[in-house]
Design brief:
2-enoyl-CoA Hydratase, Chain A, domain 1; Rossmann fold; N-(1-d-carboxylethyl)-l-norvaline Dehydrogenase, domain 2; 3 domains; six-stranded mixed β-sheet; globular
């Protein structure tokens, strides 16, 4: 028998080798077709007396990337349609039965009476790892780049094919939760030490060792199906278990603020599942999965964090008429932290980098900083020592623009000063070819204005990286009024080469990301001026889902930089600039008290040389009034933070700064950490409902100021009961915001 997704052959010893190799895909995934064929293979092995057992491996470099999330999304869409035709109760029952299919398939594998071994030749994630956990023996090839884990929580789901039941039965609840809650992966050697797999072996011995286990009489029974099975670390009600769950609940609340239904369900599945036999535990898991997969959080996170991000990574916004391009030689002007980070990711991508600074010593110091990043990555096993050495060799430090000759792309990463940027633009363009692209790594200055210093504005574009470059996934591409389609395509090709996620926005002061995150910072200042206690402001920001509070974030950005940006805006806008409470607070902090943020260890926080940062003792002096915290609505503080950012995102869409809903949501999450559970600011508005969102904005405008006044687009959508993803469907519906 032949299969589309699997190779199947039986050797002379009666051991079947099942090789998973889905055609037309770079990685194997659990799809309806692959699971159907796997079910046939299990029955074939179980029913053929000539077959002693089977080894499952992959014909690709990775074992399996997990479940096909597009299939998962289709499953929830089918559920939604079914609610309208057969009613909610029947629709939930059908969904529950579909959820149980993969779990039932894996349970059949481990109880079929024949031993199965997983020969894990590369990364196994999500449902792929769950398949290996159902096998009776697991061996994995030693490879530091190989990751074994259950990352479903990162996209709003949780392991729903037995992972919450088998993993804690293998390694104990404490270790299993440490992996499943954050979706963390481990390499094969660590997996073996934790009890996830039985052996980590040399890649060349993988199949030999896997088959030998069957030949030596490996048992076709899982430990939890034996009468003497005991949970590692102790049962829930044991002394060890009681200590585990007290700590686990505390950590869960601290890390999630109860915003993520999937993590909550993981806790419940493990706790309740370990109280009953495995089959009952699997049913518990399926019930919770049926509940979570229907949640708005899961739908939004799957769409934004996986499907939309994947489409943008594949350059969904790239002009199709421009042929593919390749940056072979890159010039970077400015060897500071940003320039060094750009050099790091570019050199790792195989690009020759010319790193220029005001003098040779500064350029070499920048190269050394990049070298330290490469060395650190090598020590952590993220790349080999040889790869780090080769990348560093691609970076040439220089103090002259002559080295820019032959560059396909030049990126300036100098100070956020229009005059300095104009100077380097002219000097660089004098050395590069007519078709080379010039990119400005600015976070706020309008690209059209910067392009006036260029002799060829069609080749001028904004390439906004986020700090630290080596860690942040997003790159914001900004087109000026004269930026050509070819220039945009070349910039996107470069971003894909360095393995970042691009979004494309039109020109505006602050563009999209800086403009929206500024509203988060400003709202923190407004609350502080109102008299909301600083600690309450910071906690409300984190509870809303932001990575840090607004005051701490402004310290990281640098208060003096925020002050300078506002001064520049004031100079550019003249009488049109409207001062607010943030101006007064920044003036007090920066000009009068010289508190610049973390950079000089004095901001809204103090930063002692030893010990953690702490809120500045005199911070209350910035507020004319002090409100009683017991009279404040914490939920409203949280909603204000999300609402003001979502509202500004809608304004960007109305003004054509943003033209694609995917870029709004992906950019907000990966650019400045907008509450991931919401799916992004436009998904958040759709979740709340345009009508309810406009009503909230109107109420806040009356209470807190005109900054909350809804834009015309939102009022129109509220009147028509529209959603952003319905009206501006990126896959073919109307794209105009007018």
């Amino acid at each position: 028998m032949t299969y589309e997704n699997f190779g199947f052959e039986v050797d002379a010893d009666g051991i079947a080798l099942v090789t998973w190799d889905m055609p037309g895909r770079s990685m194997n995934v659990l799809s309806e077709s692959s699971m159907g064929e796997l079910a046939d293979i299990i029955e074939k092995v179980a029913g053929d007396d000539a077959i002693k057992g089977a080894v499952i491996t992959s014909g690709k470099s990775a074992f399996c990337a997990g479940a096909d999330l597009a299939m998962m999304r289709a499953m929830t869409e089918d559920y939604t349609r079914s609610v309208g035709t057969i009613g909610e109760k029947a629709a939930v029952k059908d969904l529950f039965e579909r959820v149980q299919q993969s779990s039932g398939l894996f349970r059949r594998l481990e109880t079929c009476g024949k031993p199965f071994v997983a020969a894990i030749n590369g990364t196994a994630l999500g449902g792929g790892l769950e398949l290996t956990l159902a096998c009776h023996h697991r061996v994995a090839a030693i490879n530091p780049k190989c990751q074994l884990g259950l990352p479903e929580s990162k996209v709003g789901l949780f392991p729903g094919a037995g992972g919450t039941q088998r993993l804690p039965r293998l390694m104990g609840a404490a270790q299993a939760l440490q992996l499943m809650l954050p979706g963390r992966g481990v390499d094969p050697e660590r997996a073996a030490a934790m009890g996830m797999i039985h052996e980590a072996v040399d890649p060349g011995d993988l199949l030999v060792i896997a088959k030998r286990w069957i030949a030596d009489g490996g048992a076709a029974q899982q430990p939890w199906d034996g009468e003497k099975f005991r949970i590692p670390g102790g049962a829930n009600y044991s002394p060890g278990g009681m200590m585990t769950w007290a700590a686990a609940n505390a950590l869960y609340r601290r890390e999630t603020y109860d915003n993520y239904p999937a993590q909550r369900a993981i806790m419940s599945c493990v706790y309740e599942g370990l109280m009953v036999p495995i089959d009952a535990g699997l049913r518990i898991e399926a019930r919770y999965f049926t509940q979570v997969v229907r949640s708005p959080e899961a739908g939004n996170m799957i769409r934004s964090l996986f499907l939309s991000k994947q489409e943008l990574d594949k350059l969904a916004r790239r002009p199709a008429a421009t042929p593919p391009s390749e940056v072979k030689k890159l010039g970077i002007i400015g060897a500071g932290l940003m320039g060094c980070g750009i050099a790091y990711v570019s050199a790792l991508a195989g690009i020759d980098v010319m790193l220029i600074d005001v003098d040779q010593a500064g350029a070499e110091a920048g190269r050394d900083r990049t070298g330290a990043l490469l060395e650190g990555a090598a020590k952590k096993g993220r790349l080999s020592a040889d790869a780090a050495t080769a990348a560093l060799a691609r970076i040439t430090p220089a103090s002259t623009y002559d080295v820019l000759e032959g560059c396909d792309l030049v990126i300036e990463a100098v100070f956020e000063n229009r005059d300095i940027k104009a100077k380097v633009t002219g000097e660089a363009e004098a050395k590069i070819s007519d078709d080379a692209v010039f990119g400005s790594n600015t976070s706020t200055l309008p690209i059209t204005g910067l392009a006036t210093a260029s002799s060829r504005p069609a080749n001028f574009i904004g390439i906004h990286f986020f700090s630290p470059v080596e860690k942040m996934q997003l790159v914001e591409i900004i087109t000026g009024k004269e930026t050509s389609e070819d220039t945009l395509a070349k910039a996107l090709d470069y971003v894909r080469a360095i393995r970042k996620t691009p979004i494309v926005v039109n020109d505006s002061r602050g563009f999209f990301t800086s403009r929206v995150v500024a509203t988060y910072l400003a709202e923190g200042h407004h609350m502080l001026h109102e008299g909301v206690p600083a600690a309450m402001i910071e906690n409300a920001g984190r509870m809303a889902g932001m990575p840090v509070g607004p005051l701490a974030l402004n310290d990281e950005v640098a208060l003096d930089l925020s002050w300078k940006i506002r001064q520049a805006a004031k100079a550019d806008l003249g009488d049109a600039y409207v001062e607010d409470e943030m101006d007064a607070i920044l003036d007090e902090m920066v000009v009068k008290r010289e508190r610049f943020g973390r950079k000089n260890a004095k901001g809204f926080y103090d930063y002692p040389k030893e010990g953690p940062k702490r809120l500045w003792a005199d911070i209350a002096e910035l507020s004319p009034d002090q409100l009683d915290p017991d009279t404040l609505d914490v939920r409203e503080l949280m909603d204000r933070f999300l609402t003001i950012q979502a509202l500004e995102t809608a304004r960007c869409f109305e003004e054509n700064v943003l033209t694609d809903v995917r870029e709004a949501d992906v950019g907000a999450i990966f650019g400045f950490g907008f509450a991931p559970y919401s799916g992004g600011p436009l998904s958040y508005i759709d979740w709340v409902g345009a009508g309810a969102f406009v009503e909230r904005c109107d109420r806040y405008a009356g209470l807190y100021g005109e900054r909350f006044t809804p834009c015309a687009l939102l009022r129109e959508m509220a009147g028509r009961n529209e959603t952003f993803y319905g009206r501006f469907d990126p896959h073919g519906a109307v794209r105009s915001a007018a």
